[in-house]
């Protein structure tokens, strides 16, 4: 089950653009859960990645 958790090792700074409705939803969740917007966003991304089969990206270099 999806849970929002606190991340202390989020050290890469990014600038992203979100659709307004997604932004509003994430901010409501953050406020209700008394967590930062960043923690909510990272939790959502982590959950999505955990649900994906990432093996097809193993050979891609960054």
Count the DSSP helices: 2
Mean pLDDT: 93
Number of strands: 0
Runs in which pLDDT lies below 50 for 5 or more consecutive residues are none
Largest sheet geometry: none
The gross shape turns out to be globular
Fraction of residues in H or I helices:
40-55%
**Series of H and E elements:** HH
Please render the helix and strand layout as text.
Layout: H1 20-33, H2 37-51
Helix pairs in contact: 1-2
What descriptive keywords fit this protein?
mainly alpha; 0% strand
What is the gist of this entry?
This protein has helices at about 20-35, 35-50.
Describe this structure as you would to a colleague.
It is globular, with a radius of gyration of 13 Å. It has two helices and no strands. The protein has a domain at 20-50. It has helices at 20-33, 37-51. 47% of the residues lie in helices and 0% in strands. With 62 residues, it is mostly helical.
């Amino acid at each position: 089950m999806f849970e929002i958790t606190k991340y202390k090792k989020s050290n890469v700074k990014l600038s992203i653009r979100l659709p307004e409705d997604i932004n509003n939803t994430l901010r409501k969740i953050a406020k209700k859960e008394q967590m930062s917007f960043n923690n909510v966003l990272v939790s959502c991304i982590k959950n999505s990645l955990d649900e994906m089969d990432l093996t097809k990206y193993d050979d891609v270099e960054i």
